[in-house]
Amino acid sequence: MGRELTTRCCVVGGGPAGMMLGVLLARSGIDTVVLEKHADFLRDFRGDTIHPSTLELLSELGWLEDFLRLPHQTIREIGVEIAGTRVTVADFSHLPVRCRFIALLPQWDFLDFLADRGATLPAFRLRQQAEATNLVMEAGRVAGVQVEDADGPLTVRADLVVAADGRHSRLRAAAGLVVRDLGASMDVLWMKLPRRSSDPEAVLGYAAAGHLLVLLNRGDYWQCAFVIRKGGFETVREAGLKHFRAALMRTAPLLAGRTGALDNWDAVKVLTVSVDRLERWCRPGLLCIGDAAHAMSPIGGVGINLAIQDAVAAARILAPALRSGAPDIATLRRVQHRRSWPTRATQRLQILAQDRIIRPVLAGGGGKLPLPFRLLSRFPALRRIPARLLGMGFRPEHLEA
Ligand SMILES: Cc1cc2nc3c(=O)[nH]c(=O)nc-3n(C[C@H](O)[C@H](O)[C@H](O)COP(=O)(O)OP(=O)(O)OC[C@H]3O[C@@H](n4cnc5c(N)ncnc54)[C@H](O)[C@@H]3O)c2cc1C
Description:
Number of domains: 2
Bound molecules: flavin-adenine dinucleotide
Protein name: FAD-dependent oxidoreductase
Shape: globular
InterPro entries: FAD-bd, FAD/NAD-bd_sf, PheA/TfdB_FAD_monoxygenase
Keywords: Oxidoreductase
Organism: Plastoroseomonas hellenica
CATH class of the largest domain: Alpha Beta
Strand content: 25-35%
Pfam family, one: FAD_binding_3
Distance between the termini: 44 Å
């Protein structure tokens, strides 16, 4: 007999979606196991944004004060600099929530925070270095997952498996769920450059002829996201490091004198962007949430928010059903029904921004302010609309219906 473990709900993936769902279910008394293939949460290309809607949830949970004690920056406005003209795109000061800002902190701190909360709950078990390798099928339904952990193979049996294993979800592929690719036209180069104490605190976005660059403040360094055409890394590389460093400096003059830190291509990671979604998020015994159900583009930095909102809706809908056994397919479909409209609407906006703003900039047309930015610059009240969409999303979720 191989090793076996039985639980009510097995959540695969310890990202924002999986950790939030695991903690919320355990808080409702549902025995839950979260499997995470890595030994820790220390991966640096996941986005650092905790949105006002998530901060509101932390407040509903009574955890906000503790959370805000973690070192973080607050973003009350988002601005971009396009060909030397600075425009405020979003102003969070009018949102109907307690925290009218985005908290910027490394995502591993947020996930560690959730893991610490989970550790206080008897129904919560987090198993790290535990990789789900396949589904366990019984009588046509998903009955658990096969896992490989530090001690070898393990079978986890569960009334429900939730795939929160990200945009390359192995479980959604194993379940044969159909993915619709919406076509991302960009990739991101991800690297660190030194930050000086005299630098601005805020997130900085720059667009200049042919290039887009976002700088995230991580204390003593800038985490830089340089947007390139989809599949364009080989061309950037062939042009050479010197050319690349010059392009960074031309896009963000603030970086002058610091790009020397990039002395080989190993310091530059290529992050492949995808935008897709499942047609069906579930089959008997299995539900997909977060990027596993809908990979989000980094545009607007809303993927974490959507992943968390999925988790909150799923916990609210599933917990009562899980108390008495395996949720039926109609209950699983209710989660998709609840979350698919905000997902589709957000992805539509991301594709629109990609086609109308980012693509023209990457094609070298960054000299003129695109119309939406001209309007935002002229009518400050309009900045409340992007603030609402970025900060709250189309359908913010709460712990109670
Ligand atoms: C370049 C880039 C920058 C981004 N920046 C932002 C941003 O600033 N703000 C924002 O809101 N969003 C951003 N996003 C989007 C955001 O990263 C995702 O939407 C979000 O992380 C989705 O959360 P998730 O929990 O669904 O999946 P993930 O965060 O991908 O987590 C999935 C987890 O599952 C684990 N896992 C995978 N397979 C297995 C397995 N078989 N067994 C066990 N564990 C497994 C992984 O190790 C991982 O921990 C960005 C995306 C990209 C590509």
